[in-house]
Amino acid sequence: MHDLDEFGTIRQPTATRPLLGLTVLVVEDSRFACDAMRLLCLRSGARIRRADCLKSARRHLQVYRPTVVIIDLGLPDGSGADLISELAAACPRVEAILGTSGDPFCEDVSMAAGADGFLAKPIQSVPVFQNAILQALPPGRQPPGPRLVSNDPVIPDPIAYRDDMAHAADVLDDRSDAATLDYVMQFLSGVARSAGDNTLEEAANALAHAKADGRPLSSDLAKVAALVQDRLSDRIAL
What we know:
The chain is α/β, with parallel strands linked by helices. The protein folds into 2 domains: 23-141, Rossmann fold; 158-232, no CATH class. Helices cover 50% and strands 12% of the residues. It has 9 helices and 7 strands, in the order E-H-E-H-E-E-E-H-E-H-E-H-H-H-H-H. The chain has helices at residues 31-44, 54-63, 80-89, 106-113, 126-136, 158-173, 178-195, 198-213, 218-232, and strands spanning 23-27, 47-51, 68-72, 74-75, 78-79, 96-101, 117-120.
């Protein structure tokens, strides 16, 4: 279904906005990553809607039918691969389904679940974003002629990164089982990688390795929690 402008006419893609007329549902728990998607959609002409978990995405899809769905593999209430499988088997089918993750191994998981493509985080390149979506769309959705693409990277709002840190702090305070700890470790590792926060990414990865090796977690966990609080207190600038 095409989006209509205020005059009721179908909006056609252009050389500078090849995704004009498309609606992209981004299923993403990171506000920083989602802000990058917002900027990429804005530069490309697409409308964006956001869901931060599987439950929210399924509720959204009961009401709206987006053209493209981009699904993070690591979500707070389960794996994005499950939603990819559901959408790939649905009839009518969403025109393009893409998985996304900071873990390159998740590309195989996404494609096995039925995705049409994959976006590796961090996603900051307009050409990479547009190409991934256009390649997944049916031929009739391809914009005619050459495209004019800016190579300037998108820069998400730093406030969105602090929002992610607040979310991580809440989860760390309320961790009650191994699955919750696994979630917050992968969340922090992915968000830190997207933001170029090497110190936090290394600390989150060290915690994950300690858990995988069966070593005591208290020291690594305290370091991660302290780094999150530093970012919430603006003691470190990105």
